[in-house]
């Protein structure tokens, strides 16, 4: 229903959802199926979320394709065919467009529109959501599907405006192809985005200079086209794939081997790690059950990967610069195609900007403490303000006008119940929010679980005439404490990364992800629902008696 207020239209819906990526699309589908009127607001001109924006050369997913999709519809699963082991960005975007078409989702999505603010109106028990188009959406439920890593981090380096060449951030890549042919290109950053794009850019550019602050561990993806027979079998085993996405630790079928790193002899360990290396992808992560908690054991795995880097990279000085010294797997465990091999090319050079920091961007290139590098194009592969960045971009205000940013002390202290809700913000849900398992696994699996929990919850509220759901302060305190306790027992917290917020100058250090694994988390959420939403306060709507 559309009303008019101060010449701006007001749309009234049951639920407003921000974002038309994996989470927003499925949320829309589920709510519509359940009979809730829903409006999705999306800043981009199309569906896809991060896969709409991250169009940089070499962009691929690091979950295997057969798991990197929805599993809620057997028909959908069987209709779509992935071409290779790790899906590339254009193919994932085609998949999400296919989903949007199949379920006719676009008619409830408003594209090219940003949400400026969302405020809870206590008197009316509704969320008033202000769009940058001037429209207002009034909704009973406010749901964020803004992604965990969707707000680009463009470092504040002096002089970028005076650079005469072109510059791009991997997370906001243009739709048209950027042609590097014959150009001198500089890439700043060696996280997943840098490591994926560097080998592809190197093949095109006249010269590529990589500006590396922190070397990263990466193992070969061993990407390959899928065999049609494998795909046929996968589709036949749809139920099993769905079970694996729901019941395994990170939603990709793999289980951790039930053995400590320190239980193996050096010979056994070498054999296990070599086999995992040969299989490619995330196999090393699953080779032992204590990689992320065992300092001594982690070092042994890190030594193994470092030895591989030294073997691959021919120039010893470059190889030494590429050797990471943090705990393996505590920054994102990256998988690549020919990343370290790329440094054997004559047209590629590596600059250590920890030793000689970037001082400024000049008209002609990048000046570090060591000198000036002349460039035609600069690629910022400098990552994102993760977990809270996209939530804080929207002015979200709960009870008494308190903003989410204030409540979470500007990110210093996220407080949630189950990573889905936060006290003082009634009828608001965050899909893959801080303190949920989210990025520590296969996102579509995490997203399906969240979306299904939220839509089941809304149906429960409707059936029981509940007007307001809100977590109790005690439940929230316990959940946030539990998340921190689990994280503090791991090596994640000892490494500077976007997980810990260390990549954003001035951002408070924390670890806002539930590390207990997808399957245990699902069980906890299910138990909460089964116990009549234990830890939440549910307020029944006042009955109006007919006169
Ligand atoms: P990232 O992992 O945060 O890496 C950013 C890189 O830029 C780091 O090497 C960082 O160095 C460097 N950097 C940042 N500011 C800098 C500065 N001022 N000067 C010099 N270097 C600077 O970001 P990302 O590579 O975009 O990846 C982010 C996350 O997105 C990944 O961890 C992953 O979860 C996801 N992702 C996944 C895929 C995939 O599925 N394959 C692909 C891309 C991204 P420091 O390490 O020193 O901070």
- Choose one word for the global shape: globular
Strand content: 15-25%
CATH superfamily of the domain at 2-47 and 105-151 and 386-533: FAD/NAD(P)-binding domain
Main β-sheet description: 9 strands, mixed
Helix and strand composition category:
alpha/beta
CATH architecture level-2 label of the domain at 2-47 and 105-151 and 386-533: 3-Layer(bba) Sandwich
Keywords: FAD, Flavoprotein, Monooxygenase, NADP, Oxidoreductase
Protein name: Cyclohexanone monooxygenase
Pfam families: FMO-like
Organism: Bacillus thermotolerans (Quasibacillus thermotolerans)
Describe this structure in words.
With 547 residues, the chain is an alpha/beta fold. Among the domains are: 241 residues, FAD/NAD(P)-binding domain, CATH 3.50.50; 121 residues, 3-Layer(bba) Sandwich (FAD/NAD(P)-binding domain), CATH 3.50.50.60. Helix content is 31%, strand content 19%. The protein contains 17 helices and 21 strands. The strands form five sheets. Strands 1, 2, 3, 4, 5, 6, 7, 18 and 19 form a nine-stranded mixed sheet that branches. Helix 1 links the parallel strand 2 and strand 3. Helix 1 packs parallel to helix 15. The protein is globular, with a radius of gyration of 24 Å. The mean pLDDT is 96. The chain binds NADP nicotinamide-adenine-dinucleotide phosphate.
